[in-house]
């Protein structure tokens, strides 16, 4: 069986021309193109190592690749393995290549297809117990008459490794996960900032993992708040995945909230939120100085809520509107007369802000005025 696999892969050569014995099926090899440029990260020994940038020809997806020859120590000996490692643009492990010959275990038997599937599963686990151990701790302490290199492997390590291949699993996992993901993510952010077409392509991805990565880039300051990034945040705010919405809420205060276009897009999104999410938005919009018709209308419709905690956050945001409807002012006057100080104080501030005798305009007239301006 494995001879057939070797023969099949022998004809499937990568750019280096070296034969590949095993390659993860998830790697879109035929669609990846290596990009020019020098890119480096630091390994866990503090040494600078080179990585290659690969772009997906069809969707602009970003990938990172490293090829290396490293030793894996078995029982009493060390042997080199020639491997390639692929990461996605956000620094997550994607897959591996094994060059030349099969990986072997401590008893010198070859990896089976099942072993490779198990290895892939172990390498994908970012929080593997292998993270907690040093290389010297891979086996139980030496006992009288027992060589530590052949002692029983600790159960917790064995469960996180391919059977009889603890050293290989450990070595490869540490090459993939110990600091590489964070550094590769930063390389991707830097590349996106410096390459507008790549950023535009990346912004078109709808997968939650890509969107989360972009939101993290915006909130961390590693990506600019461009019109494309604003669009991503707005889409994420109405995403059914609550974890993705959480990331988007972190970025709300970075949006140009005073923009009419942004508020026009936010209005229907706000309308569909549960009261908890509405309140989160109101906290972020507390310093808003301009409130346009579309958002004002959906916010005003919530004045009928009975939750004082929510209303105390809503009223100050409504005060940002230059024109107040008579109905809104009436409701807030009623709240000012309530016996609840949590409502009374923000209602009083609202009325002081707009002036009790100030012009209370009709929102309908404002819309009419805007239409007249457009005709002119």
Can you put this structure into words, describing what you see?
- This protein is 47% helix and 13% strand.
- The chain has 376 residues and is of the alpha+beta class.
- Strands 1, 2, 3, 4, 5, 6 and 7 form a 7-stranded antiparallel sheet that branches.
- β5 and β6 form a beta hairpin.
- α5 crosses α6, α8 crosses α9 and α13 runs parallel beside α15.
- It is elongated, with a radius of gyration of 29 Å.
- It starts with a helix and ends with a helix.
- The N terminus and C terminus are likely disordered.
The N- and C-terminal alpha carbons lie at a distance of 79 Å
Q: What structural class results from the helix and strand content?
A: alpha+beta
Q: What proportion of the residues is helical, as a percent range?
A: 40-55%
- Poorly predicted spans: 1-15, 144-152, 356-376
Q: How would you characterize the largest beta sheet?
A: 7 strands, antiparallel
Task: Give the number of helices.
Answer: 16
Q: What's the total count of β strands?
A: 7
**Percentage of residues in strands:** 5-15%
What string, H for helix and E for strand, traces the elements in order? HEEEEEEEHHHHHHHHHHHHHHH
Mean pLDDT: 85
- The general outline is elongated
Radius of gyration: 29 Å
Biased composition (Basic and acidic residues): 356-376
InterPro entries: ARM-like (IPR011989), ARM-type_fold (IPR016024)
Protein name: HEAT repeat domain-containing protein
Biased composition (Basic residues): 346-355
